[in-house]
Write a structure and sequence with these properties.
It contains 13 helices and 14 strands. With 391 residues, it is α/β, with parallel strands linked by helices. The structure holds pyridoxal-5'-phosphate. Pyridoxal-5'-phosphate binds next to α3.
Length: 391
């Protein structure tokens, strides 16, 4: 497995790492990307190596529109779409466009921990909105928004991962999606819909996206090729109201450098034109579904029956609830000693919360390691439970 100087991944000898939400190397489409890169250079060489248009290359925009049209019934208008350098870049760019330091960002609890870092880097104050198995609680979002505004606070946006969320795997129910969009329209609240995992469904697709419920309205939808093709591409797309797209494409950064990651965007356009995305996605879903099944079966076999987890219908993660009184952060060094690592639930919350949870990612590890990791985790949890009950 690749690790070290040329990748972000760091693997420690003897430890089964459930912490990394990265794809297994065999799930990366190296041959398809090589063929697409050759095709982009052969057929569009000079254009691929030029500065790109700020909105992204027309070939990729056309492919994104056609694909979304197929999935959601209607292609989005061109003026509502732009290519991004992936969701992380888009979130940072949107902070620049939509917020000032000191503003509040509303975030789901729990939520993607590294989005929280991007918001903090931009000087935003984070306020959590609770969620449950059905996703974000829209009534709570409304109450908090009203309370903050009554105090004179500026709320820049609400950020959430509504489909197969990181870390909980929860999907926002269809009725809550409508309620959230209605709230956003009523209150003039911008909603950032991070759709990193929406296409990674294993049994059935998620409900229609928030953006789709009110195209060109208050929702900004972020798609990424990191999870459906490869994170190293650093490529994604954004759907937003035309004014916001125009503000982003009109930025000094894009005026100076042209569209982000233009060469990669030309390569991905060729890959999609050749049918490579659909073919890859099908194989990817099958591989991830097999990993999910293996991990869930191993957890059921090895974890104490006081641990629970939600069904995993898509995405990369199992969100395990430990017995009452456990502290996932405090337990991590013990787990590492036993040769297994995870991300403690606390990291996905603003302020307090999450002690009783841990996130296991099944995207990176081969099936035998998923099973062995679950066995090690089960062993140490049983021991910890015995110690706890003797107190
Ligand atoms: C919910 C979520 N959003 C965004 C990202 C990062 O997206 P990108 O690689 O497109 O910057 C991740 C990666 O783990 C993620 O889990």
């Amino acid at each position: 497995m690749q690790t070290g100087l040329d990748t972000q991944l760091v693997l420690r000898p003897g430890i089964i790492e459930f912490g990394w939400g990265h794809p297994h190397p065999s799930a990366l489409p190296t041959a398809a990307v090589a063929a697409a890169a050759a095709s982009a250079l052969t057929n569009h060489g000079a254009d691929a190596l030029a500065y790109g248009p700020e909105q992204g290359p027309g070939r990729l925009l056309a492919q994104i529109r056609a694909r979304l049209g197929r999935i959601e019934g209607m292609p989005p208008p061109l003026a509502q779409l732009m290519v991004t350098g992936g969701t992380s870049q888009a979130l940072d760019m949107l902070c620049g466009q939509l917020s000032q330091p000191g503003d509040v960002a509303l975030v789901e609890a729990p939520t993607y921990h590294l989005a929280l870092r991007i918001f903090r880097d931009r000087g935003l104050r984070l306020v959590a909105i609770p969620g449950n198995g059905q996703g974000l609680r829209v009534d709570a979002a409304e109450a908090v928004l009203r309370m903050l505004r009554a105090r004179g606070e500026r709320v820049a946006f609400l950020y959430l991962v509504p489909s197969f969320g990181n870390p909980s795997g929860a999907t926002l129910a269809a009725d809550r999606r409508s309620a959230l969009v209605a709230l956003a329209q009523r209150e003039g609240l911008t909603v950032l819909e991070d759709d990193a995992y929406g296409e990674l469904w294993y049994d059935a697709p998620p409900p229609p996206s928030l953006y789709h419920l009110a195209p060109g309205g208050p929702v900004v939808r972020l798609g990424s090729y990191a999870k459906v093709l490869a994170p190293g591409l650093r490529l994604g797309w954004m759907l937003a109201a035309p004014e916001l797209v125009a503000r982003c494409t009109g930025s000094g950064l894009l005026d100076s450098g042209g569209g982000v990651n233009h060469f990669t965007a030309m390569v991905v356009a060729s890959l999609i034109e050749q049918g490579g995305l659909d073919a890859h996605l099908e194989a990817l879903r099958a591989g991830l579904r097999a990993r999910r099944d293996a991990l869930l079966a191993a957890l059921a076999r090895y974890l104490p029956n006081t641990c629970t987890w939600n069904p995993v219908l898509g995405g990369y993660f199992v969100w395990v609830r430990l017995p009452q009184g456990f502290d996932a952060e405090a337990l991590l060094p013990v787990a590492e000693q036993a040769g297994v690592a995870y991300l403690p639930g606390q990291r996905f919350f603003v302020g307090t919360g999450g002690q009783q949870y841990l996130r296991l990612s099944f995207s990176l590890l081969p099936i035998d390691q998923l099973e062995e990791g679950a066995r090690r985790l089960g062993g140490l949890l049983k021991k910890a439970q015995e110690r706890y009950s003797q107190r």
